[in-house]
Design goal:
The protein has 6 helices and 46 strands. With about 750 residues, the chain is α+β, with helices and mostly antiparallel strands. It holds the Pfam family I-set.
């Protein structure tokens, strides 16, 4: 077949060879070539004369040979076709096998990847749950381990303030200079802040005299906050004076601003007076002060008191003293702020003070006729999941009586308030349970009467749900180089499997609606955390009912509600850990739910006396039963009007009160009622009517007697007028004298001296 000539139309295209054609085409070409070769051979014989001489036998043989050649060609073509189809089949089979293998491998890899993803997802979910549980367990409010330390440095020296804090989540720390936030980005050349491994450092570069201040650091997280402060004093050295080396501190340090051992003369140029305000307002009490001598680095100490209780800087009050003025600012007034305010200027020579009363009225109610907000919300006896909340009731002279209170709680750092009691509680005390251990909470109270619900009270101070006994069960031993060893009594008690029963089960609070049980944990208690189960039994029933079957108690306190009125109950407590439950404790004595504190009796006789042209002094006899009194409310009414108005909006503890804000020349009557946690007493009898006008009293004594001149025969004296004139101008003065070694006084002048200077 290789001798077959290529057609002319394929000669210039070398790629059109036989391999290009398919099998059928090659078969036709081979048959054509065989026939052409036979015809050429026959033509050859004829042209050479053989055809005439050969016999038929030769011709037949030639035809046989041609036929065999054709058969051979056909056989060879058939073999080629068979070989090609076999190769194709083998190729297809191998490709199919490879494809099946790839599909199997892809399926195996996909299944492995899906299994790997499922395992990874399950591990991530378990890790998230464990992380959440660990975070819940280790969550705590910030705690200052190493506090800030005061520094005294020279100008142009650098100082670093550092402290250590722990807490979870990691507390955020902010630095303050004289109560103003320090922003390092605003002055990077002056301040830089570092925080690493709980150690926080504030660097003050090249300190100058203006950097002398009180620096404080506040660490905050969702569970609370902690703060620490220190003083930085920057000294200027005079010409010729060498500063101390950086490693040596001077022996005599400058006195701090709030410590004063120098005699000052303090005069109040402008005093704050009796003030009337409303809840929700902002207010500032100011007093202008003249201090002699005036020293920049040394001054008296200004102290503010409310009802003889020292006031400190807080969220609600801000203190200021400087530039001849002392001020106390209120950011948001509440009835908690009502009281007698006193400013005391403390020096070595004594204390100078001025006082005035601040009245805070109720804000307008959200619902007409609703009572005013309660006040003085406080938390007591906090434990792992329990706290007692107390408050004082509002004065309801112009509203319907209060029928109960709602207590709300909120976790520190959140704004989600949750109501603790479903029905209003009638007394000013409520045990809140169900707290999460380690978290901090704030509380508020709302009063309810027939018209509606009052505004909420001011929130309480944050309280942490922790067991104070846990601190007593650990002992910290400080060793050298700042190391410490913490020893727990739980480790010393060994492995305790099932704990013993609690002891000393008794009722610490008894009310008509609930009984608060208290007990001591078992000793020894072991390392495992303890929980408690409380059971009650009605006297005579012989059956026990578990009170907290669904939720175990973590604190050695529990408030039992839903007690039948007039029935007596006995209680017992069981302790439990992961190993099992103890035997029951000893049964308590029979306890009957009832109010241990009763409503106070009415105060006695009320007497009103004149004071100033706008005020009256009211006094009364204390009630016969004055146990657990919160104080008294005083009401006044214009004679003949039969309309009573409250004088004070926060209970006072004394049986004497000055009623301010009265109309001069008007006649008034007064009444008083006592209040405690259960409620109000009956109103006292009304006082006799009194007309408001100024009363005359004796003036106070002159002061500041000074020798102005002495010539051997006479002495010239000077003094200051009395602080109080007694309601009328001072007419004059009398002078007495005595010799230093005698005790008898003698009058100097027989007639009044009208001036504050006299020569004896």
């Amino acid at each position: 077949m290789s001798s077959v000539a290529v057609p002319f139309y394929q000669r210039r295209h070398k790629h059109f060879d036989q391999s290009y054609r398919n099998i059928q085409t090659r078969y036709v070409l081979e048959e054509y070539a065989a026939r052409k070769a036979a015809s050429r051979q026959a033509a050859y014989y004829e042209s050479s004369g053989l055809g005439k001489t050969t016999c038929r036998l030769c011709a037949r043989r030639a035809r046989t040979l041609a036929h065999e050649a054709m058969q051979e060609s056909r056989k060879r073509t058939h073999e080629q076709k068979t070989h090609a189809s076999e190769e194709k089949r083998i190729r297809y089979a191998s490709e199919l096998s490879a494809l099946e293998k790839e599909i199997h491998t892809a399926r195996h890899r996909a299944r492995e990847q899906l299994d790997r993803l499922a395992v990874q997802r399950m591990v991530e979910e378990n890790m998230a749950l464990e992380r959440h549980a660990v975070e819940e367990k280790i969550s705590q409010a910030p705690e200052i381990l190493v506090r800030l330390r005061s520094h005294t440095v020279w100008e142009k020296m650098s100082v670093s303030l550092c402290f250590t804090v722990q807490g979870f989540p990691t507390p955020v720390v902010q630095w303050y200079k004289n109560e103003e936030l320090i922003t390092p980005a605003s002055d990077p050349a002056k301040y830089s802040v570092e925080s690493k491994y709980g150690v926080h450092v504030l660097h003050i570069n090249r300190a100058d005299f203006d950097d002398s201040a009180t620096y404080s650091a506040v660490a905050t997280n969702v569970h609370g906050q902690a703060s620490t402060n220190c003083a930085v004093i920057v000294r200027r050295f005079r010409e010729g004076e060498e500063p101390y080396p950086a490693t040596i501190m001077p022996f005599h340090l400058p006195l701090s601003y709030d410590v004063c051992f120098t005699h000052f003369d303090v005069q109040f140029l402008e005093k704050f007076g009796v003030t009337f305000a409303t809840e929700g307002e902002t207010l500032t009490l100011k007093c202008s002060v003249l201090v002699t001598p005036e020293l920049k680095r040394l001054r008296p100490r200004a102290e503010w008191y409310r009802d003889d209780v020292l006031i400190k800087d807080s969220k609600w009050t801000k203190l200021y003293f400087g530039e001849g003025q002392a001020a106390l600012s209120f950011t948001h007034l509440n009835k908690d702020d009502e009281g007698l305010y006193t400013l005391r200027m403390v020096t070595k020579g004594g204390v100078s003070e001025c006082s005035a009363y601040l009245f805070v009225r109720d804000a307008d109610a959200l619902i007409v006729g609703a009572p005013g907000a309660p006040m003085d919300v406080e938390c007591h006896d906090a434990n792992r999941d329990y706290v007692i909340v107390t408050w004082k009731p509002p004065n309801t002279t112009t509203q319907n009586p209060v029928i109960g209170y709602f207590v709300d709680k909120c976790e520190v750092g959140l704004e989600n308030w949750v109501q603790c009691n479903d029905a209003p509680v009638k007394i000013c005390k409520y045990p809140v349970t169900g707290l999460y251990e380690g978290r901090s909470y704030i509380f508020r109270v709302r009063a309810v009467n027939s018209a509606g619900i009052s505004r909420p009270s001011r929130v309480s101070e944050p309280v942490a749900a922790l067991d104070p006994v846990d601190l007593e069960r650990t002992q910290t031993i400080h060793v050298d180089e700042g190391r410490k060893i913490v020893i727990s009594k739980d480790d010393l008690e060994g492995d305790i499997q099932i704990p013993g029963p609690p002891t000393n089960v008794h009722a610490s609070e008894i009310s008509k609606t609930y009984v608060v049980l208290s007990w001591d944990p078992p000793v020894p208690r072991g390392r495992e955390p303890l929980t408690y189960f409380v059971e009650k039994s009605m006297v005579g029933s012989g059956t026990w009912q578990r009170v907290n079957a669904q939720v175990a108690v973590k604190s050695p306190r529990y408030a039992v509600f839903d007690l039948a009125e007039g029935k007596s109950y006995v209680f017992r407590v069981l302790s439990a850990n992961k190993h099992g439950i103890s035997d029951p404790s000893e049964i308590t004595e029979p306890i009957q739910p009832q109010d241990a504190v009763v409503v106070p009796s009415a105060p006695g006789r009320v007497v009103a006396t004149r004071n100033t042209k706008t005020s009256v002094v009211v006094q009364w006899d204390k009630p016969k039963h004055e146990e657990d009194l919160y104080g008294y409310y005083i009401d006044y009414s214009v004679v003949g009007s039969n309309h009573w108005e409250p004088s004070n909006h926060k209970p006072i503890k004394y049986n004497r009160f000055v009623v301010h804000g009265l109309e001069t020349g008007e006649q008034y009557i007064f009444r008083v009622k006592a209040v405690n946690a259960v409620g109000f007493s009956e109103n006292s009898q009304e006082s006799e009517a009194i007309k408001v006008q100024a009363a005359l009293t004796c003036p106070s004594y002159p002061h500041g007697i000074t020798l102005l001149n002495c010539d051997g025969h006479s002495m010239t004296l000077g003094w200051k007028a009395p602080k109080y004139s007694g309601g009328s101008p001072v007419l004059g003065y009398y002078i007495d004298k005595r010799e230093a070694n005698h005790h008898n006084w003698h009058e100097v002048n027989s007639s009044l001296i009208t001036r504050t200077i006299y020569t004896v």
